[in-house]
Amino acid sequence: MNVVRIAGLWLGPLLWLCAASAAEAQSPxxxxxxxxxxxxxxxxxxxxxxxxxLGEDANHGGGRTLEIKxxxxxxxxxxxxxxxxxFESSIYASLELERRLAQGxxxxxxxxxxxxxxWFRAREAQPLPAFLLQAARDGxxxxxxxxxxxxxxxxxxxxxxxxxxxxxxxxxxxxGACEAEIQRHNRHxxxxxxxxxxxxxxxxxxxxxxxRAATQATGTDSALARMADAxxxxxxxxxxxxxxxxxxxxxxxxMWYRDRWPPGTKIVVWCATVHGAKALHGVAPSMRPMGADxxxxxxxxxxxxxxxxxxxxxxxxxxxxxxxxxxxxxxxxEPRMLAxxxxxxxxxxxxxxxxxxxAARPINYRTVHAADWSRILDGLVVLREERPVTPxxx
Length: 394
Fold this sequence. Notes:
- This protein has 394 residues and is α/β, with parallel strands linked by helices.
- The chain has a domain at 157-242.
- It has 17 helices and 10 strands.
- The chain has helices at 13-26, 33-46, 63-80, 91-103, 108-115, 117-120, 127-137, 157-160, 162-167, 172-187, 198-218, 222-240, 243-260, 273-276, 290-298, 333-337, 349-355, and strands at 51-54, 84-90, 142-147, 267-270, 302-314, 323-324, 344-348, 357-360, 369-372, 379-386.
- The strands form 2 sheets. Strands 1, 2, 3, 4, 5, 6, 7 and 10 form an 8-stranded mixed sheet that branches. A two-stranded antiparallel ribbon has the order 8-9.
- β5 and β6 form a beta hairpin.
- α13 crosses α15.
- The protein starts with 12 loop residues before the first helix and ends in an 8-residue tail after the last strand.
């Protein structure tokens, strides 16, 4: 997956918290009694698991899915005692968040920076930062990011201080040049005078290799060593196009958080279903998703939940208008499971297994795949109608 630069989308912490409170006060409950009962069944199904991966369409553009995932996170934390959440987001900014939480100075803006603009540029997601921040301050929840991609935004950690802090472990003779090289790459400030050519890639690799060696040799703070290693793996992925490097890194970081957090911490993983899947039989068999390693490690103590929809639209708006979901064939999973008129339905592992091979689109709303979904997922939320996310103002 290519690195995406997202700029100018951060809202100040006060605005985030006020907007979240206003949205909760003015909006009607997003779930009727029947839909809430289906979510209760899902929560009961996974409440005792050690790791629950909450997936979503690979385009990250489902507003209704966002609302449901936020509700599931709240129920898993408040009813089942889940004490950790790890996002498919920047490990760099998340470790800065960890430091700021320990210092007692973390804000809603730090939460947004660490947990990902893929979600928090959506109005539907605005209640989540305030919930995460309060739960973290109360000591009920630990927050992490596992992605190696250094998505940078002006004024925030990856775009401002990451290069300086990584380079600080180097000798003075190399420090300034490496800081400039990493900063340029984080911000993608390349032009005719500074192209991203083979020489620039070699300089980046040399800098990160030197930083990795320095953190190991001096016993520097483990968080900094982890960031240096993550950046090196990111470069390996970006320069070779090997997406499995990212999958392995995300799994390693998830396990790293688990080892650092208190024993027995139950963890929610927030990611795209394509990353959380147990396998991708019939979808992308050449790819080994992060979830395959989670499943191999935890077995039935883990669960991956996917989302799909019968109708509606998805996308982020802005320059690209939302896309309508294509009509599903009558024999597909979505129309069959919603024939009784429900707006939300939860299918557990047994129900998925009984369906056998069936056409559905839990991986990507753009594409229908025929698969035995019980080999890919442990549960599936089926929506009658998906909605595109509602963008917030820059």
